[in-house]
Specification:
By secondary structure, the chain is mainly alpha-helical. Helix content is 72%, strand content 0%.
Length: 358
């Protein structure tokens, strides 16, 4: 078996994936060694035949459900095809040990984060940090905590490691993001400026610095950072959207609308841009046109509170009372979903949080 696997590995290193598959197929069929199935799946993938690769991994996973390597490989395939739930199911028996390769631990964390299984992501990330301590594994733990809104914990975790990673721009950007979310804006600004000094070409650093400067009412500074971020990553719709909000504060209506249109050109499914365009159209006394954008906003993000609130106003302006009441009821339900620990607020006398769902 070892000799055959070695021969197959050599063939694959020579890009002779079809020959390797011929060697591996009979070995994988007899279910005597999980490594044969892993290599066979890799050989099929090397030929561009993802369907066969997936089928091999699925069969192997049914035979060895507790094999971490097979589980991680199958989860990676599912995640790449957008099947988040299937990817999580593939990891049902994934149990990190000191012998689990780092890339498999990281893949498990990525799958759990993508599927919003945040406690599982945190658990595996902590094991990754224990077995393979590095700035990368540290930031995986931080990301899992950030997505749970546990910003003080992230600030304590990373704050204690400042001296250990003084030359890592990724470290300072991650810390700055948690500082920003915790409203510690001066520290966030300082850490982002340090990250940019280390690497001037980091999109995330310029984007976040734009957000920090916007909160500090430094409108021109924020616009400068957003434009730098756009130059580095022109396909990020959120940058155009945040720039649009800053231009709105400058009462630059034409500039705001152009930025929103650029956001949708980058991603037609970006709900916040549809919602903001809907608000603009409502203010321009064009409620029917506003409805079109607002319905797209809730189609692309069904938990976007502000879009429902704007729809209530749009349908009211159109005289469609039943639809306005329906959207008001849906707004209340979405608020409960978004804030399960809080009592819902009545619609009258309140405004929808425009940051909800962004």
């Amino acid at each position: 078996m070892d000799s055959a696997l070695g021969n197959a590995s050599v063939l694959m290193s020579q890009a002779r994936n079809q020959d390797a598959a011929q060697v591996l197929a009979p070995l994988a069929h007899i279910n005597c060694d999980a490594r044969a199935s892993l290599l066979l799946a890799a050989a099929f993938a090397g030929q561009g035949d993802e369907l066969k690769a997936t089928a091999v991994l699925e069969r192997a996973h049914s035979v060895w459900p507790s094999n971490n390597s097979i589980a991680a490989s199958l989860a990676r395939v599912y995640l790449a095809s957008g099947q988040k739930d299937q990817a999580v199911k593939a990891l049902a028996h994934f149990r990190p040990t000191a012998h689990t390769p780092e890339q498999e631990l990281e893949m498990a964390v990525v799958v759990y984060l993508a599927a919003n299984q945040l406690l599982s992501a945190e658990r595996v990330a902590e094991e990754d940090l224990k077995f393979y301590p590095s700035v990368h594994s540290l930031l995986l733990v931080a990301n899992a905590l950030q997505m749970q809104g546990r910003y003080p914990e992230v600030n304590r975790l990373l704050g204690a490691k400042r001296g250990a990673y003084p030359d890592s721009p990724e470290f300072f950007v991650t810390l700055a993001e948690s500082e920003f979310d915790a409203s510690i804006y001066p520290a966030s600004r300082e850490d982002l400026q340090h990250a940019i000094a280390l690497n001037p070409n980091m999109y995330q650093a310029h984007y976040l610095l734009g957000n920090v400067l916007s909160r500090a009412n430094d409108v021109d500074g924020a616009l400068t950072e957003y434009r730098l971020a756009i130059n580095l990553a022109p396909n990020q719709p959120r940058t155009y959207y945040q720039m649009a909000l800053v231009l709105r504060s400058k009462q630059d209506d034409a500039g705001e609308q152009q930025a929103l249109e650029q956001a949708l050109a980058a991603d037609i499914h970006y709900a916040p841009a549809h919602c903001e365009l809907g608000r603009i159209l409502l203010e321009a006394h064009r409620p029917a046109d506003a409805v079109d954008h607002l319905l797209l906003a809730i189609q692309y993000n069904p938990r976007f509170e502000s879009a429902y609130f704007q729809l209530v106003k749009a349908y009211t302006a159109l005289g469609e009372k039943d639809k306005a009441e329906q959207m008001a009821e849906r707004l209340q339900a979405v608020r409960k979903e978004n804030r399960p620990a809080q009592n819902s607020k009545s619609l009258s006398g309140s405004t929808a949080d425009e940051s909800a769902g962004k």
